[in-house]
Amino acid sequence: MARKKFVCGNWKMHKTVGEALALVAELEASLKEAAGRVQVAVAPPFTALKPVADAIGHGGSVELAAQDVHFEKQGAFTGEVSATMLADVCCTHCIVGHSERRQLFGETDESVNKKAKALLAAGVLPIVCVGETLAEREAGQTLAVVGRQVRGGLAGLSPDQIGRLTLAYEPVWAIGTGKTATSAQAQEVHAAIRALLRELAGGVADEVRIQYGGSVKPENAAELMSQPDVDGALVGGASLKADDFSKIVKGAIR
After folding, report:
1. Domain covering 6-250, topology
2. What residue ranges do the domains of the chain occupy?
């Protein structure tokens, strides 16, 4: 079945409020021709979520995502933000389980699962990230690692809930390194993820978008997204420049 491509820019710890507003204004101007053909979202830092939400409004060419969330609704969790708070500032999506969260901040498959459930309960759609390290790939463990992360992250979710989320395959060895999985490598893992989704959720698996993330650039985006099971991109550094990000989005248009 035809799945609309979904490209999300993860700004990470970049952009003040003023810089974020300037970037999203550039993006909206340059992505008008892609409106309705490709789903586009940006994930600014928490400080810029509300201003960006006010700037893009509802029904525009760019949607709003957050970069992380806490799985509790409220409480004594200094520095954290809940799914309800994200919904309150009009976030439609939220990234969970990003490799940087796993590597640097102790994110686990269990916490990813709790976060995904909290987001779905609040009406925010999760972008669940999975991916292997270089050592795991060289040891031939890619599919085992990714499979474990998918099973753990989606544990206890119904087929309907699985059908509402997005998965993002991001090989850790290709993030911020300039290295990129070949289109064949990406397709192999994406196809394996979809096969696992069929096991977990039946026919709903054909509706789930699986993004590729890992040094996506204007030069490689179109080829990556031409693969049958690559349904978009989770873009890091290249999403910080309007021209680069716009070219990546346009590369998703067939």
Report:
1. TIM Barrel (3.20.20)
2. 6-250
